[in-house]
Amino acid sequence: MSNELNIESNTKQETKKCPRCGKILPLDRFRIVQKRDAKPYIRSECRDCEAEYAKEYMALKKEQMDVFDENIEIVYERKYKEIHLARILDLAQTGLDLPLMGEDEIFVQLMQYPGSWLSNYGRMIRKSYNKYRLLKGNGTKNGLSYTVREHICEDGKWISTDKHIDVTSAVIETFIVNPDVASNTRIWHRGDKGSDYYYRNLYPVTSDQYSIIRDHYKRTGEDSEEYILKVMNDIRFKPEDWARKAFRPTLCGVGYHGCSDVDTDSEAYVKWKNMIERCYNQNSLQYAPQYTDCTVCDEWLNFSNFRFWYETHKYGSRPLSLDKDILLKGNTVYCPECCSLVPKDINLLMISTTGKDRHGLPIGVYAVKRRKGKFRAEMNAYGKIIKIGTYGSPEEAFQHYKEYKETFIKKIAEERKGQITFPVYNAMMNWEVEITD
Predict the structure, then answer these.
(1) By three-state DSSP, how is residue 414 classified?
(2) Which residues contact 277 (CB under 8 A, 6 or more apart)?
(3) Contact at 8 Å (CB) between 251 and 269?
(4) From 208, 384, 393, 411, which residue has the greatest number of CB atoms within 10 Å?
(5) What percent of the chain has pLDDT above 90?
(6) DSSP label at 258?
(7) Given pLDDT bands bounded at 50, 70 and 90, which one contains residue 355?
C-alpha cells in the first residue's frame, strides 16, 4: 500500500484546505513528504502554492544577487596579455587577400602548434607545404573548433595527428589574462552570443558566476563589464576555498599563492619560486645579471595558475627545466604561451654564453692571449668546453662557431626525439645562432 493511501486512511479525510490560497482541495493536490526514519506527512500548502512561493523566492534571491557591496574590493581586474611582436603574423607575406574583421585584428602564432596562427576574433591561419590558408573551422554543439597538427614520437619518428581545439578557449588562452585558470571552467560571451569570439567579449568565469551572469542577463538584458567584474569579485560567488590572504604578494613583493592548498616542497612550487626570484630578487640578479630585463607575466604571478600549467605539461621521468626562450628566441617573459619544459642538459645546451667575459667579441669567440690577431672559437656543451679552432678574425671564428653549434643542436634534437616535445624539437632543428646573441 502506498504512503498516500496510508496517510489517507490515517487522516480519514479526502480533502484538505490550503492556508495560502484558502481552497479546499483533494489530497492528491498536496505534496507528500517522505523523510528518512520518519513517517510521511502531507504538506500544508497545495502544490500550486508551493510552486508559486518557490518562484517568488527564487526571484527575490536573484534580485538580492544583483545588490553588491558599494565597497567591494576588486581583486580580479580585466587584463589582456602582452603579445611578443615576433609572434604576430605579417599578413602581407602570406599571399592571402584577407579583409580584417576589425582594425585591431591580429593573427598570433600558437607556439605549441607550429605553423598555426590565431586571431583575436577567433579566426585561424595555418601554413602547410609553404602555403598559408584561412581555416573554415568545424561547428560543434559547444561552438567552433579548428583542426591543428599535433606531433608525437613513436619508435623514434614523429607521427602527425589531428587535434581539435575549441576556439573560445584558445582565444582566452592567447589573449586574456585568466585570474583563476583552475576554477574558471566556463566562458561568458557578451550578449550571450555564443558565435562571438572577439576577445574583448569573452570572460573566463566559474560555473556559479556564469549562472549568475546568465540569469541577470535574461532578466535585464544587461551584462556590462562593470557588472561581470562585480560578480567575479563578490565573495558570494567565489569558490568555497577562496581566501583574500592568498592574493597578497608574499614572494619578492609580486608573487602570491592564489589558493590555500600550497605544498612549498612540491616540484611546481620550487619551479615557481625559482622563476620569481630569478626575475625579482635583487640578490639573485647580482649573481645572474642576464635576467635583469626578464619578467613574469601577470597570469603566472599567481602560483595556482603556474601549478595548473606545470602539472599539465610535465612529462617523463627525467628532471625538467623551465625554459622561456627556446620556442621564441630572445623572449624575456616567463609565460604559458612561450615557455616549455625541457631536460636540464638541453636547457644548458641552448644557453647563449659560456660564462666567460666576451670583451666585446661575438658569442663563442675569444682572443688568443699569446697569439696576437688570432681568435679562438669554442662552445660549451654540458659543462664541457669544445675547442672548435683558431682563426684570423672574430667574424671568421664566429662563423665556424655558428656552423658547429647549429649542427650540434640539430644532432642532439634528433637523438632526443622521444624525450622532448615536438615544438622544442622543431625549434632546435630551426635554431639559428646570431652574431648579436
Answers:
(1) helix
(2) 251, 252, 284
(3) no
(4) 208
(5) 65
(6) -
(7) very low
CB atoms within 10 A of CB 412: 17
| Helix, strand and coil in the chain, % to nearest 5 | 35, 25, 40
Amino acid at 52: E
CB 338 within 8 A of CB 328: yes
The number of residues in the chain equals 437
d(CA 90, CA 84) in angstroms, rounded, equals: 13
SS3 295: strand
Measured distance CA(321)–CA(424) in Å, rounded: 13
**Whose CA is closest to 81, among 224, 225, 178?**
178
Residue type, 37: D
Report the DSSP pairing between strands 320-323 and 202-205. Answer: unpaired
Helices vs strands, H then E, count in the chain: 11, 20
Helix (H, G, I), strand (E, B) or coil at 302: strand
Answer yes or no: are the C-beta atoms of 18 and 26 closer than 8 Å.
Answer: no
Q: Identify the pLDDT of residue 118.
A: 98
Backbone torsion region of residue 188, taken as left when φ is above 0, otherwise alpha when ψ lies between -120 and 50, otherwise beta: beta
Phi, psi of 80 (to 5 degrees): -115, 150
Convert the pLDDT of each residue in 54-113 to its tens digit: 877 676 666 666 777 777 888 899 999 999 999 999 999 999 999 999 999 999 999 999
Cell 527564487 belongs to 58
Q: Which helix (H) or strand (E) holds 399?
A: helix 394-415
Cβ contact 209:180 at 8 Å: no
Phi-psi region of 430 (alpha: psi -120 to 50; beta: other; left: phi over 0): alpha
Among 124, 127, 119, 117, residue whose Cα is nearest residue 138: 124
Residues 292-337: tens digit of each pLDDT: 999 999 999 999 999 999 999 998 888 899 999 999 999 999 999 9
The answer to whether the CB of 40 falls within 8 A of the CB of 7 is: yes
End-to-end Cα separation, the chain, in angstroms? 87
Cell match 667575459: residue? 357
Surface-to-core class of residue 129, CB atoms within 10 Å of its CB (0-12 exposed, 13-18 middle, 19+ buried):
exposed
3-class state of residue 200 by DSSP = helix
CB 201 within 8 A of CB 179: no
